[in-house]
Design goal:
The protein has 89 residues and is of the alpha+beta class. Helices cover 17% and strands 28% of the residues. It contains 2 helices and 4 strands; from the N terminus they run H-E-H-E-E-E. It has a 4-stranded mixed sheet, covered by helices on one side. The two termini are 26 Å apart.
Length: 89
Amino acid sequence: MNSGETTLAFASEDLAASHGFPYRRARPNSEPDAFEVAFRTGDVQAAHEHALKAGAVDRAAPEKNLGQWVSYVADLNGNTVELCTPMCA
């Protein structure tokens, strides 16, 4: 996954548990957390379709909102992923 200059890290549940403090496990059928990971793309529709074909769950189809195209999917653990075009200046 290309995230530009940003380092993006994912931890397994075993690694998260080893930190010594409790955490809530994400699950596909649970209500989403109040956070998301967002990825900018030039073609939200294509990225959304690609994510669905790869196993993501549709949360909100692509739509234009305040000049920006945005959609939402859930990953295999139920985490929310936003797909969006860059913000208009």
